[in-house]
Amino acid sequence: MTNKLVIIVGSVREGRSGPVLASWVAEQARAHGGFDVTVVDLAEIDLPLALPDAHPKLAADDYPRPAGMAPLTAAIDGADAFIVVTPEYNHSYPASLKAAIDWHFTQWAAKPVAFVSYGGTAGGRHAALHLENVFIELHAVPIRDGLSFPYYRRTWQDGRPLDPETPQFTKTMLDQLTWWATALRTAREATPYPA
Ligand SMILES: Cc1cc2nc3c(=O)[nH]c(=O)nc-3n(C[C@H](O)[C@H](O)[C@H](O)COP(=O)(O)O)c2cc1C
């Protein structure tokens, strides 16, 4: 069974590192097998901060999103699993990511999410913890294992992590994501999720 994996590049900052990490994670996911991988870069999406006068859960398909958000909405809707690549800003995750999350609701439900975080000393730990909390509200399923990189500029070189153990940790994360993606997809197909 092939699961559709959407990797979200959360940072949109000028001079950001997010695309480098996402590209390496995508390479690992493709090599892992069993995933149809799409990388969605939030810097390429129209993501206004002002939400419409409706709730995306209640409005469902009638929720009025900008045309430039359509690729993101389609990707989230069609996904079986997510990897969110997030930096840490002021002990949390970037506003771009919160906007992308809040413009959607049902599209996230009953799907697993893994986190690849990076930042200063804490390696994006606060960002990942905050995201776990938020995704539970959306009926998504944060998985146990993720990746965390302190000081990106010291721990990565030429687009790859320097720690030789990282590929093994990545495999564990992808194994867990596969398990949950398959289990939840089978369950969603058998019975609509009661969100
Ligand atoms: C506005 C801002 C706030 C930051 N706050 C934190 C922080 O609270 N904790 C941390 O570990 N790193 C923090 N950092 C460091 C970033 O997480 C780090 O530079 C990361 O590589 C930035 O990712 P990006 O290049 O993809 O934007 C901050 C960086 C910026 C620009």
Automatic annotation (TrEMBL):
GO molecular function: FMN binding; oxidoreductase activity
Residues annotated as domain NADPH-dependent FMN reductase-like: 4-147
Pfam families linked to this entry: FMN_red
The organism's place on the tree of life at top rank: Bacteria
Stored InterPro entries: Flavoprotein-like_sf (IPR029039), FMN_Rdtase-like_dom (IPR005025), NAD(P)H-dep_reductase (IPR050712)
Signal peptide (from-to): none
Chain coiled-coil ranges: none
Protein name: FMN reductase
Organism whose genome encodes this protein: Amycolatopsis bartoniae
Phylogenetic placement of the source organism: Bacteria, Bacillati, Actinomycetota, Actinomycetes, Pseudonocardiales
